[in-house]
Structure formats: structure tokens, C-alpha cells
Amino acid sequence: MKSRFRLIFEWTLLAATLGGAGFAVARAQPLDQAPQYVKFEPIIVPVFIDNRSAGLLSVHVLLEAGSGDERARIESRRPHLIDAYTDALIRHARLYIDPLAPVDVAAVAAAIEAANAAEVEQQPRVLIVDAMAQPA
Predict the structure, then answer these.
(1) Do the Cβ atoms of 41 and 58 come closer than 8 Å?
(2) DSSP one-letter string for 51-120
(3) Could you read off the pLDDT of 77-129 as tens digits, one per residue?
């Protein structure tokens, strides 16, 4: 059986943890300064191993735009960005993706950021919501 001191210590620690969360005050950014996000449909590309289709890579991308104007610029370039992302992911999947292994999300994000460099003047932050490789 636990000692009385240890039991009191655990309850005190639990109370401090739960009670301390209520004292945190989150300061919301003003609406005009809050980050804007541009959502893309999932980009699905084939994965080839030894010149044979081995599976599919699906990546769901969000871009963080700093302002409404930047969001509008990204939205206007959406078709070009989707083409660039598809091309970059096909090249990346051919070299680095195995449908039976976990996806390296940091490497996928780097490939998409490299595709952004040619399409968007200000580099938005790339957020990978979902990345999945599945065998054929």
C-alpha cells in the first residue's frame, strides 16, 4: 500500500496540473493578423519501384499565408501550384517512397517547398495534414 506522503504528493501534483491549466490565458491575434490558410485537395501520385507501379502516395497540403492579400495571390496561382506539387511528388515518390514503409513527412514537405520556390514569390509555410503511401 502506498504511503500517505506519496498519496498526498500525487493528489497535489494532479490538482496543480489540472488547476494550472485553467489559469493560462490565450491571447487571440486580431482577425487581420491571424494566419490565413489555403487548403488543397489531396494530391495523389503513383509510386514506381523497378519501373512498375507499386502503390500510391496521397498528400494533403495546406499553405499558411500571412495575410488576406497573400492568400488571394496563392489562390490565383492554385492550378499552377497543383501542377508543380504533382510533378515534385512524382519525382520524390520515384526516388524516396516505399509503399510498405512509413512516409518521411519532412522530406515530402521539403519537396513541396522546393516546388513553391518557382511558383510563389513569398514562401508560405507548408503544412502536411496527411501523408500516406499504400501498396497497389
Answers:
(1) no
(2) TEEEEEEEEEEEEEESSHHHHHHHHHTHHHHHHHHHHHHHHHHHHH--TTS---HHHHHHHHHHHHHHH-
(3) 999 999 999 999 999 999 999 999 999 999 999 999 999 988 888 888 999 99
> 45: burial class by Cβ within 10 Å (0-12, 13-18, 19+)?
buried
More confident residue, 52 or 22: 52
CB atoms within 10 A of CB 81: 24
Task: Round to whole Å and give the CA distance between 103 and 98.
Answer: 8
Picking from 11, 18, 113, the residue whose alpha carbon sits closest to that of residue 59 is 113
Backbone phi, then psi, for 57, in 5-degree steps?
-115, 125
Tell me the residue type at 63: L
Q: For residue 41, give every residue at least 6 positions away whose Cβ sits within 8 Å of its Cβ, in sequence order, or none.
A: 60, 82
List pLDDT tens digits, range 38-82.
Answer: 999 999 999 999 999 999 999 999 999 888 888 999 999 999 999
